[in-house]
Every structure is written in structure tokens, then in C-alpha cells.
């Protein structure tokens, strides 16, 4: 058996022994004796009687063990022409005093705190300060509009909202305060207070509910780390589901810390003191896990980058960062490299930089399409590692594992299941699919540490969304297959979730916004292939009988609506007015069929992003194809 197979089998066959060994990687206030237990719905719970604090493990512990003067964060912000280095000792103090400020506002263990911040070190300080107090943070990505923020505030019911005065998108300064105010106005739940970090690019005008960050910490006490149970929630992170309402993925504390610490060694192969860069945003799971918690738990230096892969100032931005900070492991989404390749196809800018510190490149967030894989593989002397994961799992389900045993890469494959994840492919009847046979990708219970422990405030949704389809298995929502060598290929979502520039979006949510327009009778939103962003949403709309307005005006109004209510990140820029949408006999819109048409396929085939298609194709398909015949074909 290979080293990988030994480790994988150990984790599957003796999970308690395996994970109790891995638990030694983090500092505990009280060692766990109960490694794996199950809740009343038979979902795995890890380290339930252990006590720890993840801020202590990620920051204070390193200061206490001689890393105080090491850089914890390099902040690099080409959009504001600023840079900063923050040592572990400085970070500990900033967190502890800010946590003291939060305590003054009444924040205690178990309270929720919503964070709406751009990529500045204070975003990490805010998250870690919550963790220090045992409060549950919920970070909302800055590209979401007030309505989306309101939905999350209403669901999480935070005591406090923490925000910056503005974000900066390349050359645009985006004031955040009006977004916060509007969101609180829209939400039925009103937080007690808002803390605003004032940035010099735009200062917000504060009202009665607001507290200035700097003033709050001035006379705040130094807050100590609060001991929490292993299973106490660390955060709630909302992600798109198939309905309009996002799901609040609940993450526990100790299982997450242990899983991340393990991953830094076996997947990302970094040692304490080395530099790790994840080019994402703290608003996404990749940011939570690999900008904030994992690099700091490992005693690495993490990079907080406020910029884009291109245009800040050019497509050499990532190469410059690798040289300047001597990055060893680098993680981003394939779309970022598609953007770089588009601007600099021969990678001329790379010649200006020495990137010899780089040992591995990791890609995730969407499928690593073979052309991008080959471009990178030809360009770089380091392994290009695709790995697959989701907000729900918190860390990679499948990867190449250089820290255990590097394996040859295969274009299009996320390589093999990470130890702890018993990944299987099931057909519609719940039978195991053979090699090369596509099916639903599922994970056999128990899920390893680090994975979601529930949907915030909605145990029923947790069960129905993930556990009900195949009893005993977690449904990932992705389709895929194993090849004959046991390599896993993830081909795309089997539900109405789409992936735009590595960002997960719900077409159902967009449909709710479009469908609420007074002139719209029916609509469907589907994802179509896009060279740069992987997929882009397109709205197909049937106007109400008697609609005599201008189609172009209606299209523009619908685009503006989605931007205002969901946010620019939805990238909803295309609408088609059509005569009819394919339906089942009972009148339900045949979304699967629409997806197949959009993919240039006939019926019922899972979508893949490799099939080139265009808006014109969809238009032709919708206007000219015999929708009736298609309906009939899917109903036999
Ligand atoms: N706050 C406010 N607006 C934001 C935002 C933020 N934090 N992030 C993005 N937006 C806006 C953008 O300005 C853009 O607005 P526009 O329609 O006015 O141009 C819109 O949302 C769409 O953003 P995006 O899809 O990111 O497109 P882009 O053209 O700005 O950048 C990429 C394209 C590929 C360079 C960029 O998406 C990228 O770097 N992606 C990396 C992937 C990533 O971070 N994945 C996270 C999971 S790993
Ligand atoms: P998110 O929860 O936003 O991280 O999105 C998770 C979804 O992104 C997964 O369910 C997949 O559909 C997709 N995804 C992420 N990483 C990969 C990958 N390496 N290969 C294929 N799909 C991926």
C-alpha cells in the first residue's frame, strides 16, 4: 500500500484513533477525551468535551512560543498604495484590545457579530476578536448589496455589526455605511451597535448607533481568550443554496482547527515561519480557512491582498507578490489565471520576477479547466494542484497531497480524496457507480472534522439539503466520476447553483428578484459558459400578457434590479425575452433541460463548463428549437 493509501485507510477505518493523533497539532486548554460522537440526528461531532480557543491557538500560542516578532500578516494594497507588516505580538494586542472594545458593547460568548469588511488587516482582527470572546462571527462579502446583507442580519441576529467606512475596487471607492444603514433598515432584527473602521479614502458619518473603531479601542481592556467547547460554533458563513434564502453554514471550533492544521502539512506542505498566500477574500470560505485561520494556526505569515490579479497595476501582480514576500504555497481560483492569461498570454511579465520561492500552486473554487491547467503547467516549474472543496466542508475534500506522497497530476482531476473523506459516486438508485461512470458525488458518514455541523437556525434544511437524498451520505451537489486509477473528476453542479468567477451563486435567488418585476410573468435563470468567469447567469423572461413596453428597457430594468438587490458580484448582465419556457406536464419549468440547451446538449446531460456556448446559442435554442418536442422527450 502506498503511504497515501495507508493514511487514507487509517482515517476511514479508525477515525477516532486517526483524529485523536491529529488533535495533538493544536494547543488545548482541556484535552478531549470524546473524539467522535453523534448528535440526535446521527451527524458527527468532533472533540465535544475538549476545550480550547482558536484565537489562542492561532495567535497567542505563537507569541508564547517565541514567534512574537515574526510577521503574522503582510498587508499589500496596491489599490490604496499601502503596505504593512504586523507581527504576531502586535496582532495579539490589536485583537485583545478590540475584543475588549466588543466586550464594552456587551458582546459575549455565543453572541453573533456580522462583519462587512474589505481586505484590510482589521477584517482579521475583527474575526479573531470574536473568536477570542467565543462570539460567533458571520462575515458577509463586500460585493453583496444591502438586501443580501439584510437577509443575513435578519437570520444571524447579531448584537453588533462591524464594518469599514469603505471598500476600494481597483479605482472605485465604495462607501459601506449607506449599505449597512440600508441593510439594517430592511432587516427586522436591529443590532445594538455598529463599529466602523474609518479609512482615509472615505470617512463615514457616524450616527447614534455607530462607534468609531479607533475610539472604541482607546480605553478598552485587554480581553483574555475565553475557553470554548470543541463543538461550540466559531462562525456562520452564508452560502448560496438552490432557493432564494442563503444557507448559514455553521462551523464548529476544534474540529475545524484540527482539520486546518492537518491540511497545512499534508496538502499545502508549509512549515511554521513560511509564507502562505491565498488570493481570495475573507468573505468566502477560502478566505476564512486559508487567509485567516489555517496559516496562523500553522505559525506561517499570511498575506492580506487588497487588489485584483490584473489591473493593479497589471497582470504581473501575483508574480510580484511571490517575489516580494517569498511565498512558498499559493492558492487562488482558476478564473484569476484566466484573467492573467487574457492580459498577458505569453506571461511576458513573469520574466521580470524571481519566483523561485514558490513550491506549489493550488487552485480551487471552480473546476480547473484543462486549458488553464496546461498553460500553468507549461509556464511554472512547480506542481499545479487542483483541489476540490465547498463552503460546507471548510477544507479540501480531494487534492494531491504533497505532504504525504505527491502524485502525478491529471488535467481535469482534483486527484484523490483527502484522508477522512470517504468520497463515493452513486447513481440515481443509490448504487455505487463503476470507474468512469458519472453520478452524484457523496461523502459517507461520518464526515471528518472541520465540516459543517448544521444550517444556522434550520436543522430541517440541513437534513433536507444534504442528508436526505442518500441516507448515510452527505450530498455534495456536484456530479463526477473516478477514473481507473482512482483519480476523482468533479464535473459541475447537479443543482441550480452556478459558479461565476469562483463565486457560488444561486440562480433561484436571481429568479426571485427577476420574477418580482411587475412586467414579468415567468422567468428562469441559467448559467452559460464564459471564457473568463467559467459561467455567467442569463435570465430568460416571459413578459405578462399585454406587455407593450420596450424589451430593451425591460431587460435593462431587470439587470439593474439584480445588481441592486443581490449585488455586482452576481454579474447578471444578460436577459432574453422569450416566447415560452419548457415545462413538465404539471407546469414546472424544466431547468435541467434549459441547462442542457445552454450547454449545447440535448436532454438531461449534466452540465460541464468545457462546452463552448454563447448567448446567441441560447437565443437560437430558445427561440427556434421545438420546445414542445423537447418537453415530450423528457417526459417519456
Ligand atoms: N466589493 C464590491 N464590489 C465588488 C467586490 C467587492 N469586494 N468584488 C467584486 N465586486 C464587483 C466588481 O467590481 C464587479 O463590478 P462591475 O460589474 O461594476 O465591474 C463585479 O462585482 C463582478 O466582480 P468579479 O466577478 O470579481 O469581476 P472582476 O471583473 O472585477 O474580476 C476576476 C474578475 C477574475 C479578476 C476576479 O473575479 C478574481 O480575481 N477572482 C478570483 C477568484 C476569487 O477570489 N475566488 C474566491 C473563491 S477562491
Ligand atoms: P463554494 O462553496 O463557494 O466554495 O463552492 C463550492 C463549489 O464550487 C463546489 O460544490 C463545486 O461545484 C465548485 N468547486 C470548487 N472547487 C472545485 C474544483 N477544484 N473542481 C471542480 N469544482 C469545484
List the helices and strands and how they pair.
Elements: H1 3-13, H2 15-22, E1 36-38, E2 44-46, E3 51-52, H3 54-67, E4 71-77, E5 82-87, H4 88-104, E6 112-116, H5 121-133, E7 136-139, H6 146-156, E8 160-164, E9 166-169, E10 172-175, H7 177-186, E11 193-197, E12 210-212, H8 213-218, E13 228-229, E14 233-239, E15 247-252, H9 254-266, E16 275-278, H10 285-297, E17 301-305, H11 317-325, E18 327-332, H12 334-343, E19 360-363, H13 370-379, E20 384-386, E21 398-399, E22 416-417, E23 423-426, E24 439-444, E25 454-455, H14 459-467, E26 473-482, E27 488-493, E28 497-500, E29 503-506, H15 507-515, E30 520-530, E31 534-543, H16 551-565, E32 574-577, H17 591-598, H18 615-624, H19 627-635
Parallel strand pairs: 4-17, 6-7, 6-8, 8-11, 11-12, 16-17, 16-18, 18-19, 19-20, 31-32
Antiparallel strand pairs: 1-2, 3-13, 4-5, 9-10, 14-15, 15-25, 21-22, 23-24, 24-26, 26-27, 28-29, 30-31
